[in-house]
Amino acid sequence: MKQKLMIMALVAGAALASPAAAADCFADYKAKKDNPLKLHYGVVQLYNGCSKASAKSEVAGRIARDGWTLLNVLSVFDASKLAGKDANAGQFYLRY
């Protein structure tokens, strides 16, 4: 019986820590490229945590593939605050 309860607790814990649990987590950020200087504002969905600290490393890694440098994570928020951000982020709305 104890073993069954322990297995159920482990499964429940894994479900809470899964990317699906963070599926409603987003961040908006500013980034730059040099030579010539280019700036952009973007919005990303986060999968590795829902804090500014975890967003910084996750966003920086994703945008670096295309030569962008993260300047700042402005905020971390849930899906209810996505409205209107697509117009400001343009091509960088959920791109990375």
Notes on the structure:
This protein is of the alpha+beta class and 96 residues long. The chain has one domain (23-92). It has three helices and three strands, in the order H-E-E-H-E-H. The chain has a three-stranded antiparallel beta sheet with strand order 2-1-3. A hairpin with a 4-residue loop joins strand 1 (26-33) and strand 2. The longest helix is centred in the N-terminal third of the chain and has 16 residues, at 2-17. The chain is globular and about 35 Å long. The N and C termini lie far apart (46 Å). 19% of the residues are buried. Residues 4-22 have low confidence and may be disordered.
Structural topology:
Blueprint: H1 2-17, E1 26-33, E2 38-45, H2 52-64, E3 69-77, H3 85-89
Keywords: Signal
Signal peptide: 1-22
- Shape field: globular
Side by side, the strands of the main sheet go: 2-1-3
Order of helices and strands: HEEHEH
| Mean of pLDDT | 85
Q: Report the strand count.
A: 3
Whole-Å distance between the termini?
Answer: 46 Å
Helix content: 25-40%
Count of helical stretches: 3
Signal peptide: 1-22
Keywords: Signal
What are the main properties of this structure?
alpha+beta; single chain; signal; 96 residues; globular
